[in-house]
């Protein structure tokens, strides 16, 4: 680092080296200035006026110019300037309006040279002419700018205060080192903007504008860098920013050392871009090395990513990241904090300047829209209004059609578990469905009840390992579309095996997931005889009891049909036609399993299933699950439904829920204001009978019956009726069906 | 399969954040050019910019939507040390006709002394609350006591995290069993000490937020953090973007009713992937928390999904500009060059076939019957995507397995 800076600065006559360092001042600084050879810096403030030497490792106080027993206000400096040609000459702007020059060559302790007291108010700025040795310019809050000739005792010319740079009572400051080569002028002001003007033409033209977060106090062009300038602000913000004016939004570099407002900044040497000196109200004088600066852009996030509701992804990224791999910097080798003077290829300055982001949305294509299943399921599920068994069947079918065999199976199982056997009147579907339901049942049973023979885990592992048999179990779920379709079952092949199982984003390297391509020989016909034949071959095992229990409700309904499907590994889980135990297992027997199953669904992100089952099962399961969990599920599901704007479903769920916290969702802050359709007066809140005309207010204007369910009415004439009737009516006529002549409006 | 639709964002500098609204029909982007843009999805699926305005006087780091129950409300935070709340004004008929909407600033939150790095609304059930975190390590929680008056926000909590904060995420769980909880990530670059992710929880008794957990294993700068949507789970899942993608599971330990301290969590590292092979900038969960997307300095979006055993796998890579993924980008070194080129070839073939706009997540299992099937690498190659996921502790297994084995038919989620 040091070497590099030496090399770069070798261009100028002397070599500068150093490090980031600071020293404490006795008092807050107002301004600083360096001498031409960059070895000394003068610090001026209300109560300080000192010269420090800049050494390799530290600041060394060289001279205190604030001498004399009686402190004069002339020492109270707002600005200071070191003459860039005359090494001994300094000028200060005093807060009492005096402009003072100092000659360091004077032998006496008091170096004050000349005193100009022409300004009426505080002088903000002094500046030597860069080429004319004796010319000194000052700007004051009195609105005037004066030019002094140091050889005379007075100003040689006075400019009206309405000169652009000193307007607004000196709130604009002009950098004294405006780019001569470019003819550019940078201004910063209270409007929190730094503007760069092109002065080469007759009319100054604004060519760049940098927005800062606070009023700008000082602006200094960075030496040797065409587009860089440093700023500090006069309040709020204590940092020093170096901007690349081509990218006016993010500072190129930041120096954050100061604890209070930075009042003076100066580049140490006019040909060295790596050293910046600053003085601050926190009474410190800093030398900043550019390599130690923080780079806000490194912390700035170059990417944005968000998942949409339907599984689409919005992605915004810096173009250089996504366009080519050349610019990629691997982590952590590619240090992004290269100092600017490490002139690597490509030039980091250039990289910094031209940056933009590309925004794109990755949409799941319509066929496999990732959340479609949720919406459809929510809409098609029946949660109430039918006998329990029918609800389960219906929902199983819905799940089946949406290619969600596991869910479908679960519904079927639930029906079997909780149905009253007497209600089973449709043996056909029962049979098929029971087959689907068998596997999970068996698993759960073997786990729960089979303590003697085999540990749960080993049992599980083996069942996993045996993919062939798993496959058998999966098979019926796959192509089983209609419930009563024996033919289909017998002829089903391996078509589409892979399709139902895997989502777009699924890997199939797990045992349980992998489906061998061989067509499983299994096909269970509905005819009882074949099935029984199979059974005959199998020895009976203790597990039968359990198995039998599981399916007993069904078995009792249809004796001839056997419920067990296939052996799972060494256990030949078959059922016996005569139940050994009473077929009427109490439903509560299954509750722990169902509870676990619901938790499983919830943990898998399918809270829809958990809530739907909860509602359909109702009292059968409610007591098993603690209220907090139930409420949590309900809330989550309702939130999801509302996201998808499925208001009706959401409302239904709220209505059907048994949690008090949920049901009250519908009852809070919903007010209905209605007019009686007869007398057109506002109704009181007591039911649907009008107080005045004592008639039912909710009579359908089309069919003249009392409306129950969805009621729609015109806010203009208070007439309305069944939603469907009104929709039909309005197709043919725009007038009110009640004959009142009103042109009804419905939105 | 994803279709990339690129949008001419026309931001003049880097875009730092994109955010979908609650219903997924609107999108907000924010950029260093100090502006925020709002995009609306039209009937045919096109995104149109309906509003673009200057929000701050510095880079806008993040933008986020409030729950629509509170209106069309956005919050933004910026380098200029402020956060701002914006509301869309309806009824401006002229603007509406031109397809533009008008947003006005409701408040500016000026408490921070440094850059405000993230802003998030708290979950809806907590009311209208806004959280900011700033580079000086302070998290501030504001509340609008009157949801109809968005110009009044009171600073409710000020929590000092000691470390420079870069991101914040609320636990979205609405369960009463889960006290309000948020996680803060720090982009402090000093790797010698860990704990770059801290989790704070509200204590009902003290009415203050207290630190519940510090993830000491996270030692690198964290750039994004996201709690998975909690749809009725008893535990929490947290994704972290640091030098790699990490997924943590926080299982609340059963709490004695008498204890007043914060909930103790059993922290499990569920997965850790360095497939981006570079800094990871963003993580985002899908709505059912079954899919995690991450983006890194490699310019790719990677999708992660857990199988039924809670093993997380990479299931897709999306390249930002829709160009084919080259073998070198992000593939672990274990993969031979032959494999790499074969993937590439198949990719190229795919892209050539579909005019460059379609691409197939290359690691999908081949699907029988699709015309892409034969172009994809054999399934044996799929292995290469798996970074070794950290297995959960064995003692955690029995319960999990027992609940799993009940329903061993894994379901293809959301086909």
Automatic annotation (TrEMBL), chain A:
The keyword Repeat applies. WD repeats lie at residues 116-158, 185-207. Residues 458-473 have a biased composition (Basic and acidic residues). InterPro entries: WD40/YVTN_repeat-like_dom_sf, WD40_repeat_dom_sf, WD40_rpt, WDR24. Residues 448-495 are annotated as: Disordered. Keywords: Repeat, WD repeat. PROSITE patterns: WD_REPEATS_2. It holds the Pfam family WD40. Catalytic component of the GATOR2 complex, a multiprotein complex that acts as an activator of the amino acid-sensing branch of the mTORC1 signaling pathway. The GATOR2 complex indirectly activates mTORC1 through the inhibition of the GATOR1 subcomplex. GATOR2 probably acts as an E3 ubiquitin-protein ligase toward GATOR1. In the presence of abundant amino acids, the GATOR2 complex mediates ubiquitination of the NPRL2 core component of the GATOR1 complex, leading to GATOR1 inactivation. In the absence of amino acids, GATOR2 is inhibited, activating the GATOR1 complex. Belongs to the WD repeat WDR24 family. This is GATOR2 complex protein WDR24.
From TrEMBL, chain B:
GO terms for cellular component: kinetochore; lysosomal membrane; nuclear pore outer ring; Seh1-associated complex. Keywords: Cell cycle, Cell division, Centromere, Chromosome partition, Kinetochore, Lysosome, Mitosis, mRNA transport, Nuclear pore complex, Nucleus, Protein transport, Repeat, Translocation, Transport, WD repeat. Its main location: nucleus. GO terms for biological process: cell division; cellular response to amino acid starvation; chromosome segregation; positive regulation of TORC1 signaling; protein transport. Component of the Nup107-160 subcomplex of the nuclear pore complex (NPC). The Nup107-160 subcomplex is required for the assembly of a functional NPC. The Nup107-160 subcomplex is also required for normal kinetochore microtubule attachment, mitotic progression and chromosome segregation. This subunit plays a role in recruitment of the Nup107-160 subcomplex to the kinetochore. Belongs to the WD repeat SEC13 family. This is SEH1-like (S. cerevisiae). It comes from Amphiprion percula.
């Amino acid at each position: 680092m040091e070497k590099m800076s030496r090399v770069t600065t070798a261009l100028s006559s002397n070599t500068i080296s150093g490090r980031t360092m600071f020293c404490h001042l006795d008092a807050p600084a107002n301004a600083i200035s360096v001498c031409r050879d960059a070895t000394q810096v003068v610090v001026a403030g209300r109560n300080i006026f000192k010269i420090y030497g800049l050494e390799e490792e530290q600041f060394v106080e060289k001279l205190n110019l604030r001498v004399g027993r009686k402190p004069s206000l002339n020492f109270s400096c707002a600005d200071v300037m070191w003459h860039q040609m005359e090494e001994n000459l300094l000028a200060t702007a005093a807060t009492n309006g005096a402009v003072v020059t100092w000659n360091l060559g004077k032998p006496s302790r008091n170096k004050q040279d000349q005193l100009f007291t022409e300004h009426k108010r505080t002088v903000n700025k002094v500046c030597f002419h860069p080429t004319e040795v004796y010319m000194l310019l000052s700007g004051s809050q009195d609105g005037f700018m004066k030019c002094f000739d140091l050889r005379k005792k007075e100003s040689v010319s006075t400019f009206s205060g309405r000169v652009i740079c000193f307007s607004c009572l000196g709130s604009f400051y002009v950098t004294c080192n405006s780019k001569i080569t470019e003819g550019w002028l940078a201004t910063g002001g209270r409007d929190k903007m730094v503007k760069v003007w092109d002065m080469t033409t007759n009319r100054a033209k604004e060519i760049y504008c940098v927005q800062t977060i606070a009023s700008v106090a000082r602006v200094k062009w960075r030496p040797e860098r065409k587009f860089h300038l440093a700023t500090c602000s006069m309040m709020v913000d204590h940092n020093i920013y170096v901007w690349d004016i081509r990218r006016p939004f993010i500072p190129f570099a930041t120096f954050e050392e100061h604890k209070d407002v930075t009042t003076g900044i100066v580049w140490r040497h006019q040909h060295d871009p790596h050293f910046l000196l600053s003085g601050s109200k926190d009474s410190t004088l800093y030398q900043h090395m550019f390599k130690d600066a923080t780079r806000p852009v490194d912390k700035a996030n170059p990417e944005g990513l968000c998942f949409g509701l339907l599984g689409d992804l919005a992605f915004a990224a810096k173009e250089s990241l996504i366009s080519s791999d050349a610019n990629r910097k691997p982590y952590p080798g590619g240090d992004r904090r290269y100092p600017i003077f490490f002139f690597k290829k490509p030039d980091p300055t250039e990289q910094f300047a031209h940056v933009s982001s590309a925004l794109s949305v990755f949409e799941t294509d319509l066929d496999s829209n990732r959340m479609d299943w949720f919406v459809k399921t929510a809409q098609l599920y029946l949660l109430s209004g039918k006998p329990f068994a029918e609800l389960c069947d219906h929902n199983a079918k819905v799940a089946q059609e949406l290619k969600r065999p596991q869910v479908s199976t679960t519904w079927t199982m639930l029906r079997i578990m909780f149905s009253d056997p007497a209600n089973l009147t449709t043996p056909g579907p029962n049979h098929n469905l029971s087959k689907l339901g068998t596997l999970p049942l068996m698993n759960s049973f073997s786990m729960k009840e089979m303590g003697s023979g085999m540990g749960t885990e080993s049992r599980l592992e083996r069942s996993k390992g045996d993919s062939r048999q798993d496959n058998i179990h999966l098979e019926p779920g796959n192509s089983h579309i209609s419930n009563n379709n024996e033919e289909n079952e017998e002829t089903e092949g391996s078509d589409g095996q892979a399709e139902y199982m895997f989502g777009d984003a699924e890997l199939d390297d797990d045992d349980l997931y992998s489906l061998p391509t061989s067509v499983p020989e299994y096909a269970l016909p509905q005819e009882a005889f074949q099935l029984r034949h199979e059974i005959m071959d199998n020895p009976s095992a203790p597990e039968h009891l359990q198995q039998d229990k599981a399916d007993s409700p069904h078995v009792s309904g249809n004796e001839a049909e056997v419920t067990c499907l296939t052996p799972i590994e060494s256990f030949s889980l078959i059922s016996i036609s005569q139940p050994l135990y009473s077929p009427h297992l109490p439903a509560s027997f299954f509750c722990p399993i169902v509870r676990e199953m619901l938790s499983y669904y919830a943990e898998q992100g399918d809270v829809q299933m958990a809530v739907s089952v909860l509602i359909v099962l109702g009292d059968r399961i409610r007591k098993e699950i603690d209220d907090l969990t139930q409420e949590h599920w309900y809330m989550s599901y309702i939130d999801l439904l509302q996201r998808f704007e499925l208001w009706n479903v959401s409302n239904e769920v709220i209505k059907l829920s048994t949690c008090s916290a949920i049901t009250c969702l519908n009852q809070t802050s919903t007010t209905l204001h209605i007019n009686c359709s007869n007398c057109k007066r506002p109704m009181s809140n007591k039911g649907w009978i009008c107080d005045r005309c004592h008639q039912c207010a909710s009579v359908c204007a089309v069919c003249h019956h009392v409306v129950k369910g969805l009621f729609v009415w015109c806010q203009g004439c208070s007439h309305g009726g069944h939603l469907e009737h009104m929709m039909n009516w309005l197709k043919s006529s725009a007038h009110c069906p009640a004959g009142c002549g009103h042109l009804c409006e419905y939105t | 399969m994803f279709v990339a639709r690129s949008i001419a964002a026309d931001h003049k500098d880097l875009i730092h954040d994109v955010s979908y609204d609650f219903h997924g029909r609107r999108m907000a982007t924010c950029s260093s050019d100090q502006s925020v843009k709002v995009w609306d999805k039209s009937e045919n699926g096109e995104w149109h910019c309906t509003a673009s305005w200057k929000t701050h006087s510095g880079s806008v780091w993040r933008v986020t939507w409030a729950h629509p129950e509170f209106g069309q409300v956005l919050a933004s935070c910026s380098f200029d040390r402020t956060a701002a709340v914006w509301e869309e004004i309806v009824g401006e008929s002229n603007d509406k006709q031109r397809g533009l909407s008008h947003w006005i600033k409701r408040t500016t939150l000026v408490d921070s002394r440094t850059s405000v790095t993230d802003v998030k609304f708290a979950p809806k059930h907590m009311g209208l609350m806004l959280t900011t975190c700033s580079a000086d390590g302070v998290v501030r929680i504001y509340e609008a006591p009157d949801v109809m008056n968005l110009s009044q926000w009171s600073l409710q909590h000020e929590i000092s995290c000691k470390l420079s904060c870069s991101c914040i995420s609320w636990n979205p769980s609405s369960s009463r069993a889960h006290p309000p909880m948020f996680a803060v990530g720090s982009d402090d670059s000093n790797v010698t000490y860990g704990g770059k992710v801290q989790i704070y929880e509200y204590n009902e008794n003290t009415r203050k937020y207290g630190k519940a957990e510090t993830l000491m294993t996270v030692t690198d700068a964290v750039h994004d953090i996201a709690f998975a949507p909690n749809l009725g789970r008893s535990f929490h899942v947290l994704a972290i973007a640091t030098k790699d993608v990490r997924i943590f599971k926080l299982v609340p330990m059963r709490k004695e009713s008498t204890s007043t301290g914060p909930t103790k969590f059993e922290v499990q590292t569920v997965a850790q992937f360095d497939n981006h092979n570079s800094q990871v900038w963003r993580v985002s969960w899908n709505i059912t928390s079954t899919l995690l997307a991450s983006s890194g300095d490699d310019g790719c979006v990677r999708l992660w999904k857990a199988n039924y055993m809670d093993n997380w796998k990479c299931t897709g890579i999306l390249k930002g500009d829709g160009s084919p993924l080259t073998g070198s980008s992000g593939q672990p070194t274990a993969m031979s060059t032959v494999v790499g080129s074969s993937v590439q070839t198949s990719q190229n073939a795919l892209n050539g076939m579909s005019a460059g706009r379609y691409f197939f997540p290359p690691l999908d299992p081949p699907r029988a019957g699709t015309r892409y099937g034969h172009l994809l690498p054999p399934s044996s190659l799929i292995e290469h995507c798996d970074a070794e996921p950290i297995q959960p502790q064995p003692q955690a297994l029995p319960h999990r397995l027992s609940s799993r084995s009940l329903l061993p038919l894994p379901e293809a989620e959301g086909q």
